[in-house]
# Entry
Amino acid sequence: MITLYDFPRAPSPRRARVLLAEKGIPHETVIVDLAQQEQLGEAFRAINPRCTVPALRLDDGTVLTDNAGIAAWAEAAYPEPPLLGVTPIEKAEIASWNARIEQEGFYAVAEAMRNSAPAMKGRALTGAVDYEQIPELAERGLARLGHFFEMLDAHLADRAFVATDRFSLADISAVIVTDFARVVRLKAAEEFAHIGKWRAHMAERPSFSL
Amino acid sequence: MITLYDFPRAPSPRRARVLLAEKGIPHETVIVDLAQQEQLGEAFRAINPRCTVPALRLDDGTVLTDNAGIAAWAEAAYPEPPLLGVTPIEKAEIASWNARIEQEGFYAVAEAMRNSAPAMKGRALTGAVDYEQIPELAERGLARLGHFFEMLDAHLADRAFVATDRFSLADISAVIVTDFARVVRLKAAEEFAHIGKWRAHMAERPSFSL
# Structure
């Protein structure tokens, strides 16, 4: 049986959770309680030494330790429906948008949130090593995030999906970063008209209630 | 004809340059002079509004604007030799290592270098928007980079390649971040024995003289 190591409120494991649902990949779920720092304890460290979720244990015991690995595996092992594109140019477009959403979106929210929230003191980055908060980086993250959503909103002005002409991994990542940004009080789906319309369209997919 | 927008001394376009060489993809090269900030000028902005290299213009005029898109396109359009893996688990392993090398390696060197170098004042991030340097982030980048190379060195102790049992995109990225780290005076191939041995092995490939 495939096992997803997950935590309900965190954005990174949500990316894997929605992907598995869209692909219809049967699995069981184990909750790793990030609120109690269970990801840093010995039991989970033995499963994923990177001390992060999501992690996905496959039938043969292989453990995939990040979203990049999980998406590549899922697309190859369960090709239908394709979420990483079919033609070379579609594959490029989806990979590029997904990377851009990570770099300009997810990292920006994470910078803004983890470098300012009192609960994240000494935990400014995920993973096994502790890093102190850098308040200037929180400010920069917010500024970057604003630019990211302006760009995404303009991009979505005449499009139904973030990349190509159908639903893809880029939509999954973009929905999750849009929702996650509320943690730093940026309500992108309310503040940006095209993002709002696209997000409402995405809400029709049952996977996004996960 | 395919056109690579490139700059010789920069690490990001080198990733595309080596990939195209390993795949044997014919192309012409146009140099964008980053030293003169040509990437921010109107002419290049019309080609890649993200103002970054590498960019790859395809036969049909499509412009791929980052390494994620270029690698996905190249693997699909020129499957041989495979550089992103063949089986689902190989694909996962390579995607995961490549992402990890980006996040923990490339971003760490970039943080250390761009937040400290006098020439990078006001240009702490690549791209169209100017951001001021954050000295604490330069320090954190150096610390992160040390942890990254310790991890990579331990990983390479009993391996010939970074991921799977043959040459892949993960080796390309790891060689380039290892070489790039010299810009912040971290000579990983000299300081870490296993990295040194693997880097010497990689030097046998003509693509790495590019």
